[in-house]
Amino acid sequence: MFSWGKKPQAQAGSSDDVPYKPLIATEMTDSSVTDSTASPRPVSADLAQFVKQWLLSCNVQEGTEVLEAIALQRPELVRGPVVMEVARREDRNAEQTQKGDTVIEIQPSVSSAAPPRQEARLLPMLQFSTSKYYCKEDEPTVEVQVLRLNGSDLRSQVSYSTADKTAVKGVNYVEASGLLIFEPGERSKSIRIELIDDSAWGGVLEFSVNLEEKDLSNAVLSEHISSARIQRIDDDAFPTNRFKEQILSRKVDEINSVSLFIEYFKLCLSDPVIRSGTIKTIIIGQVKNVFALLGLFANIYLVDHVLASTKPGDDPDNYLLVNKQWSLVAYIFSSLVPLALFHAADYSKFSWRVGGKARTSLSSGLVNSFLYLDDTCQGEVDEGALQEVMTHDTEALIKVGYNNFVNLFALLGQIFLFILFQVGVPLISGSSRASIVILQMALFPVMIAVVLSLRLRVTRQTLNDRRDSDRAMTRHIHEMLANVSLLKDYSLRGTAMDRHADLLKDINAADRAVGVTLNNNAYFMKWLTFVAVSIYV
């Protein structure tokens, strides 16, 4: 073990003119690593000079602790005997280095028998200049820097690649990968990644750039900064920038709700997963409508020809097949096959991830935007409203809003084919009521649109009142739980219960109003249908 010699106390009869020269040496060779019989290798002159210069710059205690740690942990760094001679000399020559009254001398041992060796060297370390980079959405590119530390005299190389997180390659940024080559003398390299600007809201999106072990040469990767996160700050408004000025100026009430929902629909369609699933859903809905129309004609054939009683002289050509029985079998089979196909198609809808992806994008974007607000803006957010939005409104917007809007395409196609059927059958059969049917089918959608426009404002108001009452209850519960100790200390339990009872009354009243409004809307459609059928009859 390394130690430092100290001059003992003077004894009787001793003379201070005689210098005290203790000699303490420790040999560290390759024998602990390889072969115990191997001869010690001498420490190089360069290494001995480096250690000597370092020891001259520190105190005795520091030198002892560091050299002991080297001897125990990394014996391969110091090879051969290291002789430390500490003495107090008054007549040292001018070339000797003084540090107080202590002279430190480290001499490399010389062994002619030991073979020369190549000194071990540390490889350069590669890492990013920081673990996180920021960029704006409208910037064309973002640049990250890779540093080479601990030497630059070698030719080093490393490969890199990007990886998705909340940002998606091809949608938010251009995928990048390649090979960085550090020529001798180079200490840094830059990686430039292209960004894709869009007008769709998405919050703060993130992707990463990673240094890889593949193709790594003459270097090692940092354990902590071999991967960098790039956060792209979105400057778009929700759902698009069409109403950005009104939203930023907090004039949301001036925005038409139907137009705002259409913009949200566009936002959903900008996602490739949602767009693909939506298109498939619309196509399947229209195919169902076509088969439903064919089914109506098949039912007419079934009643008029297959199930009708046979009369003498009936034309056999009225049957689809050779006789009534086989025609009935063909009808059953033609109904069975579409039923099985549509069952399989509806079952596969759950794997298209339309609802799940829309929910994830909306909810994650809201949370992301909230977390990146400054303290002032976060303090202005109503906690009850935020909880209501995250737990109820998000789900309602997707299920009641987006999914029903997609289903509206199927309903519109169904209405069109129904009108086509009602108009086509009288014309084909030569009925005298064809003109009346055409007039009714033309007026019926117009009357429905008028009724819906008249009831839209009332329906929207009652639904908003119901939502506000739910938010007030959520906010009350949150405040009560946060201040339960104060309610106990100041005997305010009764006040809290009275407030809770009042909120329950508001919820019940709003719920009753919603039920009455929706019930009247449904019966308006029934009354309208009754009038149209009565006129036709």
Folded structure, characterized:
This protein has helices at residues 45-56, 60-73, 244-248, 257-269, 272-306, 324-348, 354-371, 375-380, 383-429, 434-482, 484-489, 493-536, and strands at residues 23-28, 80-87, 103-108, 125-128, 132-136, 141-149, 156-164, 177-182, 188-194, 205-217, 220-221, 227-233. It is α+β, with helices and mostly antiparallel strands and 537 residues long. The radius of gyration is 43 Å and the shape is extended. Helix 7 (354-371) runs antiparallel to helix 9. 51% of the residues lie in helices and 15% in strands. The strands form three sheets. A five-stranded mixed beta sheet has the order 5-12-10-7-8, with no helix packed on it. Strands 9-6-4-11 form a four-stranded mixed beta sheet, with no helix packed on it. It is built from twelve helices and twelve strands. Residues 1-43, 78-114 and 116-120 have low confidence and may be disordered.
The rounded distance between the terminal residues' Cα atoms is 114 Å
* Integer average pLDDT: 77
What is the succession of H and E elements? Answer: EHHEEEEEEEEEEEHHHHHHHHHH
Helix content: 40-55%
How much of the sequence is in beta strands?
15-25%
Strand line-up across the major sheet: 5-12-10-7-8
Radius of gyration, in angstroms, nearest whole number:
43 Å
**Number of DSSP-assigned strands:** 12
Brief descriptors of the model:
disordered N terminus; four-stranded mixed beta sheet; 537 residues; five-stranded mixed beta sheet; 15% strand; alpha+beta
